[in-house]
Amino acid sequence: MKPFALSRRQMLENCIAKGTLAAGAVAFSQSQLLAWWEQGEANAQKPTSTEVLGPFYRKGAPNNATMRISGEPGFPLRVTGKVLNTKGQKIEGVRIGMWQTDHKGLYDVQGYRYRINLEVNAAEYTVETILPGHYDDRPAQHIHYLITAPGHKTLITQAYFATDPFFEGDPDKNFKKRGIVGNKELIRPVALYEGPGASRAAITFDIILETL
Fold this sequence. Notes:
This protein has three helices and ten strands. The protein has helices at 8-18, 30-43, 171-174; strands at residues 76-85, 95-99, 115-119, 124-130, 142-148, 155-161, 187-188, 191-194, 199-204, 207-209. Helix 1 (8-18) runs antiparallel to helix 2 (30-43). The longest helix is centred in the N-terminal third of the chain and has 14 residues, at 30-43.
């Protein structure tokens, strides 16, 4: 006979019915326990997809939230986001390594231009940079990430841009082109803002880490 697989909800209902949860839940009715469980399921979040580290990572980048120097070539970009666990809770002790090319698509492999190792406060971050350039090996614009936090798995990933000409105006259709992007959810919408002095772009790139 083929084994019968119970859903997690069915398992919870069976435990309640058999009284195996009674010792830890005497103050809750069955409906309250199910509502509590369903709320937890609703708050659960999928871990951020991984990507390749790439050949241009360098240790020792500065703890700095600004990669862009005023007056430098390149279209200004603000990157913001939160760092949470899969339960939607804030994480302490987060460090975010970010690195990218300049506007011409070149990495600084001698120094630390467009490279940071940011200590995150209150599980939120804001970084001022520019839109990275294109280069032949990986023609989609991208920012590299390496995120660490105590008690959590190290995450290596990348942020991409929905406005990138590489996607030909349709990221949903073209994200697999040339095998450059592994996961569509890493392509972020880009907002454009007109401000005093200069225009800028902005993306939100939230990070969800798995616990060890």
